[in-house]
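Protein in question kept underneath.
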Amino acid sequence: MTIITGFRTPRVGFQAVYTGGIENTAIGFQALHGNTPFAGLGNTAVGFQALYNNTGSLLPEGQYNTATGDGALFANLSGSSNTAAGAGALYLNDTGDNNTAMGFEALHANLGGTHNTASGRHALYNNASGDLNTAIGVDALLNNGSGSGNVAVGDGAGFNVTTADDVICVGSGGENISGTCYIGNIFGQISAGRRPGSH
């Protein structure tokens, strides 16, 4: 059964864009299934149940998202301007905006975190509310839950960071201490309010 209430909304697949929306594209079984007629503008969903729950009560909610892969952005309600490429990427995202997740289950548990970038399988997997994080590599910043402003590069980089802010890890698991930097086996910490080279 197909209910056609969308405007300029092409769809391919059983129950794709089941309830409507404007200028959306859905390809796959139940892609954009819950999209509402008066919200959810300009979304692209490709894959089984991609952007399944996208509703958004009113514009400008739940718009301009791109989800490619089975269950990508599955739970999104009102988050906007997110990009998820990979099965389960940004799967639990609810209200988070401006996130980019590339890789299997990257940013999987994100709920309301914003401006995060994750590239690699399970990168930033457990991030729920942290903002402005960058994780590149398999399992990079895997356990970060609420920390913000962290950067991790390399497989398993930032593994030990869970709640700390402004931690940099390159090829290192690091520690859960805010304002620290780990490069391989090198550790450095900058005191609050000071820059390197200041006296």
